[in-house]
Amino acid sequence: MLFEKNKVYRRSSIHDQYGGSRQRGISTPNKHKLIFIFDSGMDQEFGYKNGWSEEDGLFYYSGEGQEGNQTFSFGNKALLHHIENGEDVYLFESLGKGNYRFVDQLILIGYDIQFGIDKHQNQREVIVFAFEPLHIVQEESQEFASTMRYKSIEELEQIATRDPKRATGLSMSIRKRQVREQTSALYYYVLARANNHCEACGQAAPFDTENGPYLELYSLYKESDEGLALPEQVIATCPNCHARLRKSQDRALYREKIIQQIPLP
Q1: Single pTM value for the model
Q2: Helices 134-141 and 172-194: crossing angle, nearest 10°?
Q3: β partners of residue 108
Q4: Are 57 and 175 in contact (CB under 8 A)?
Q5: Within 10 Å of residue 136's Cβ, how many Cβ atoms?
């Protein structure tokens, strides 16, 4: 993870390193596959409140736009599409005077359209996103390993390629389960597609574990290898190639070479 949980950061320092808007609540750096949510806790005056729900453990965040109906544009659009666009979402909480506490890395669970008021006290539609800490989804997706491990590659692909935006009309409990199933299916689908070989160098997996040949997942576009992604954005690699793609001096060139040479679906 790029940031340390509960550590306090200067917002200006974050932007100096990664770029992105220095004023908006949703910041989307141009040169990094990252989205920053800077929660100021000052949105109650517009008829809604951001925060964690004790009932389901989700973080509910109202979209940007202080007047008129909110639409899926700019930062709202980025949050809606963050999974398929391979972008990691990081939540920061304002402590005042430009200081922000890093809360967690999040993943979108769903969204809803609610009624609120804008800055002119007019009624309008507000987009309310529901996020969950990524590490919780990762941990709980392991509960589906015994099911996914024995599915066919066609069945895994069908689950792994579900539309990550398909959230309206579903309860959050159902959506939470779907995200966990999809996370587990993605892992086993990529391993099945690799057929016990590194998709970077082509060599066989270096050793076997109790659960089969050992390969690691690498995201070709995201800043991290964790969380949901489209199957074509992820490859299975041997430990050596994974380390090369993350740490070597030629990692950028090696990554581009792989993107060009591997016929992913």
Answers
A1: 0.92
A2: 60
A3: 131
A4: no
A5: 14
